[in-house]
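Field reference: sequence -> structure
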Amino acid sequence: MSGAREGGNVASMTRGDALTDADAQYLADIWMDCQSCLSPGTELLEVLREPTDEGVKLVARYRLGMHDRESAANGATMLAAHSALRARIIIDRIRFGFSDLIEGR
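Structure field:
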């Protein structure tokens, strides 16, 4: 289910549902955008698209330091979920970094 944009299978970044070519390209763009939101040295592991009753949920899993982390956001459309995911990743990066600092990890 994971893979990098270069050489990776974009469709493998979702859970089982069929993607249109446009959705696959947009998901690849979301992958690249999520990478740009993460700090240097953080490895993006996977980006998942999960359908919900209200629309779509996007989940980004990444390795920050020695810990695997996850940020997720919902939206009525993939565009809305993408926008919310960008904000969530930034907030989570701050939260995880502060927690690691306080816990002395």
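Note: The first strand starts at residue 43 and ends at 52.
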